[in-house]
Amino acid sequence: MKYRTLGKNGPEISALGIGAMSFAEFYGPTTEENSFAILSAALEAGVTHIDTSNVYGMGRSESAIGQFLKDNPGIRDRVHIATKASITKDEDGNRCFRNTFEHFESELDGSLKRLGTDCVDLFYAHRRQPELPIEEVAGNLQRLKDKGKTRAIGFSEIAPSSLRRAATECHIDAVQSEYSLGVRSPEMGLVQTCAELGTALVAFSPVGRSFLTDSPLTLEAVEEIGGFIGSNPRFQEPNYSANITATDALRAYAKELGVSTAALAIGWVLAQGNHVIAIPGTRSTSHFAELVEGWNLTLSTEQIARIESILPIGWAYGDRYSTVQWIGPERYC
Ligand SMILES: NC(=O)c1ccc[n+]([C@@H]2O[C@H](COP(=O)([O-])OP(=O)(O)OC[C@H]3O[C@@H](n4cnc5c(N)ncnc54)[C@H](OP(=O)(O)O)[C@@H]3O)[C@@H](O)[C@H]2O)c1
């Protein structure tokens, strides 16, 4: 099992975390009991890192985690909880991003209440507010650390140049970014800059929102779920079928190796650096077992080369977000 230091001098956390966006029905229906089962399985397996946000189900994900902690006294000290804020609505109800200290603090206070804890372990600016210089935003995050409301701070989806600027203000413990065999853009500087600055790179959607598993979402399921995934370009035809065909070859290779495809996807992400943490999400304990398999998998150089020849950079059909998902009200994460 791989445990990694968060940032420069942070705590040791499991290199596999659990992404709790799925607790808020982002990828289909679930129940609080189901989320508790995932959290129990995670603890039993030795997974200590939980990733959530104030916007996942508008507090539903955090509330489920909070209830689990309440029902299981003594667990809080064994888990490392990360949450985020900044995605909100303006006076006209349009989606916008706020990075002021006041916004962060009031949203974090709400998260602490739902989680039933005095302090989170990691707090991210979920999205940049473009009008504010990133140095100022880093300072706002640092103030929350100084006030004892979070032990560490980070950004989500920022460029390497922005990270460098933020790091001139204070140490940035983590940067979260979509990173998987289907999204290799962090290799254009972010993976390297994080390593250089002692910042953890937390890879979200590491199993490509199901494409990099043995049972990708079906088109029928995608239509039924709707929302973000229902209008995501990679899950629209003809891209969807092309992506299934492309990833069939990875499924065949996983079979050859006698492991699950999800395990190969997680194993590949974790092989990208000792500062990389993967946070897949699931509503299923059997799927979770496959993710744990990936956490424990050590791939050889030859196996990594083979995986990258099966799914070379740029294989995926469709952008990872639609235009409106980059900026619009449809995007919740
Ligand atoms: N910072 C950000 O902006 C941001 C954006 C997106 C996500 N995140 C974080 O990253 C976490 C993970 O990302 P994600 O949930 O979008 O993507 P993901 O983990 O790549 O994919 C989740 C999807 O894959 C399926 N899946 C997972 N393991 C599977 C397995 N072994 N076999 C078959 N299907 C499997 C899940 O279905 P089942 O439920 O049926 O298993 C779900 O449909 C989120 O929970 C959230 O905490 C952050």
Give an overview in words:
The chain has an 8-stranded parallel sheet. Strands 1-2 form a two-stranded antiparallel ribbon. It starts with a strand and ends in a 6-residue tail after the last helix. The radius of gyration is 19 Å and the shape is globular. The protein has a single domain, classed as NADP-dependent oxidoreductase domain (TIM Barrel, Alpha-Beta Barrel), CATH 3.20.20.100. With 333 residues, the chain is an alpha/beta fold. Helix 1 runs parallel beside helix 11 (285-295) and helix 10 crosses helix 11. Helix 5 links the parallel strand 9 (153-156) and strand 10. The chain is built from 13 helices and 12 strands. The structure holds NADP nicotinamide-adenine-dinucleotide phosphate. NADP nicotinamide-adenine-dinucleotide phosphate binds at residues 19-22, 27, 51, 156-157, 176, 204-210, 213-215, 217, 262, 279-284, 287, 290-291, 333. NADP nicotinamide-adenine-dinucleotide phosphate (NAP) is lined by residues 19-22, 27, 51, 156-157, 176, 204-210, 213-215, 217, 262, 279-284, 287, 290-291, 333.
Quick overview of this protein structure:
41% of the residues lie in helices and 14% in strands. It is of the alpha/beta class and 333 residues long. It has one domain (12-327): NADP-dependent oxidoreductase domain (TIM Barrel, Alpha-Beta Barrel).
CATH architectural group:
Alpha-Beta Barrel
List SSEs in N-to-C order.
EEEHEHEEEHEHEHEHEHHHHEHHH
List the ions, cofactors and other small molecules found in this model.
NADP nicotinamide-adenine-dinucleotide phosphate
What is the structural class? alpha/beta
